[in-house]
Amino acid sequence: MSDAASAKPTISNLQREIVSVVLDMIIPADPLRNKPSATDVSVLEYIIKRHPNTLARTAEELTELQNQAQSERQSDFLALSRESQDALVAAMRSKNPRFLMTLAVQATEAYYLDERVMSSIGMPSRPPYPEGYTVEPRVNEFLLEPVRARGSIWRRTEIEQKTDV
Amino acid sequence: MAEDVVDVLIIGAGASGAAVAWSLADTGMRIVCMEQGDWMNPATYPSNFQDWEVHGGETSSASPNHRNRAADYPINDSESPIAIVNFNAVGGSTILYSAHFPRFHPSDFRVRTLDGVADDWPIDYFQLEPFFAQNDRNMGVSGLTGDPAIPEHQPPLPPIPMGKMGETIARGFNKLGWHWWPSDSAIITEPYQGRGQCLNLGPCNTGCAQGAKSSVDIAYWPVAQRMGVEVRPNCRVNQVTVDENDMATGVEYWDGNGILQHQRAEVVIMACNGVGTPRLLLHSQSARFPNGLANRSGLVGKNLMLHPWGHAAGIFPEPLDSHVGPQGCCLLSQEFYETDTSRGFVRGYNLQITRGSPPVATARNGVASGTIPWGAAHHDEFEKRYGRSISIGVCAEDLPEEHNRVVLDDERCDSNGIPAPKIIYRTSENSLNMLAHGTARAAEALHAAGAIEVHETNYPIRYAGWHLLGTARMGSDPEQSVVNEWGRSHDVRNLFIVDGSVFVTSGGVNPTTTIQAVALYIADAMKQRLATLFD
Ligand SMILES: Cc1cc2nc3c(=O)[nH]c(=O)nc-3n(C[C@H](O)[C@H](O)[C@H](O)COP(=O)(O)OP(=O)(O)OC[C@H]3O[C@@H](n4cnc5c(N)ncnc54)[C@H](O)[C@@H]3O)c2cc1C
Fold it and tell me: Of A118, A143, A157, which has the smallest distance from its Cβ to B167's Cβ?
């Protein structure tokens, strides 16, 4: 069920910029597999639509990143090199494994709903119904031979023993 | 004006209510079924939508506590390691079920005689056999004849496709010399009785948009309605009423407008499932039945059996296309179904081989559990899992124990003020030993089939309270059972119970085909005794 919001969720411009860096850390592009980065997928729109109640907490975590960058490295998070950004996020996640977990899970959901991603994993971007999918083969009779060869294995009760069913 | 009287009033339009209504319809009696939920609209099921994995909607959860629809009632499961899951609508829990349809074995009806535990049923497999066959035809069941683990029977439709994943795991079972077989499935694989065949949509557990899964709203009710049965949706029964002669007089119910009404009936049949039926009986208190209706034995609500569930999943080196196809139905193994006490437990379990997860679930579960990391390795790990996993569920036979029970909750109620059921349940040592054995065997089969990674889940799995059995057991002794050998209450001679409540033991397989066979058997017994039904 979506966590329908009562208050309108908000996120600052700074938080938006930080999130786009973090999303690329969660799922970067993979050109060989034709996969975009999570940054290029509408993750925030997805969160605002489906999980609006969680946005405030994620926004707080993004601010924590900025604060940590300032106190530890005397720099804005966005001004750090990508290597330093990665190290800072990794350190915060190893201290608290739940840190940015909600964002990671929601970003993953949004990512695998994206048409480009669907087609990169060989799924047509359409609902399952009405076209459906094909599953082959139906039954491999050859594989059943040893099972049949063993003969009946169900346990007889006194009823079958008496009547020799 | 005299109050309208119906001949038969059925409470609950799920698997058992539909079967009993269909069977009784040919008597020409006036039959009404009251159902607290509404008809479902398959056009709203998630698989109609591209974002189906996260679509949400009425059918997106099997837990009534999470769904919280008006038709649902809350269930207090705080004193049970296993949470109850169900669905409340015309079609009952079959709207969401996986439609895995194995039958009980002959030995399941004779556990006291064979193994010295629990009790024998007052009926046996062979009495039910014609009703199993009838139900297979009515529902539309697919399968392969010749399974050596069960007496010979002929499903009306060819089996569900095994796919590459089915072949892969079958090779593992063959390597170990263990039984396996394509599962009987209540999913039609060819056009059948005006319904279109399975399209391998995948998400059977959120409702089948194609109508190929035999939920009873499409498989049974339209036929029963054509035969004259009236379904009254959105009617929630509050109590079964009785007179001073201990005969049911009908039911008090909340109609669709929230008005409390009374419907008189000559016969009342309860089909609210193994939790809903004891709840309603316990709530139907009167001067003659201060401890709940039909409860002079004190056994209403007791002996709850839930099939504690275990699970293991394997990841395989090649693509198996396991992300498509009906998720819960592929193969089963009954190698460990019958008792062998050297295993450390009595009775046994079924291994249910199920398909892998679709994309969002694969990725989301991997990220949440840490098996799919952040960064570039995400893609490698996703690829390693997606379409390459096979799951095996362990369905353990649960033995009846009086302390496992359904009672009325002191605090929670449904939207009409009827007390919620509360589940008090402990997984027995026998069941836990069985799950330990079963989970290890499932892992062994996955390894034998070539899995490169195997994960065993902690058991019993919480949201696996699918099978609700035993809470108004059948028997010939009124002190030891709630209904007699043909489903009639010992205490109230025009009250019948046809759902899984009447089960004496639980078997080790998904129970719905057996629940429906018992319901058809009870209906047949009623028809044979119409002139003397209340004697
Ligand atoms: C997610 C899921 C997966 C499952 N998978 C399988 C499977 O693969 N194989 C299998 O064999 N079984 C499976 N099951 C179990 C199967 O659905 C049940 O065994 C079966 O539906 C039970 O039938 P029933 O008639 O006893 O009850 P139900 O089908 O639950 O129907 C009971 C009906 O009674 C109604 N009711 C209750 N109280 C009242 C009241 N006071 N007034 C009016 N109406 C009332 C309810 O609304 C409901 O519609 C699954 C269940 C779930 C939830």
Answer: A143
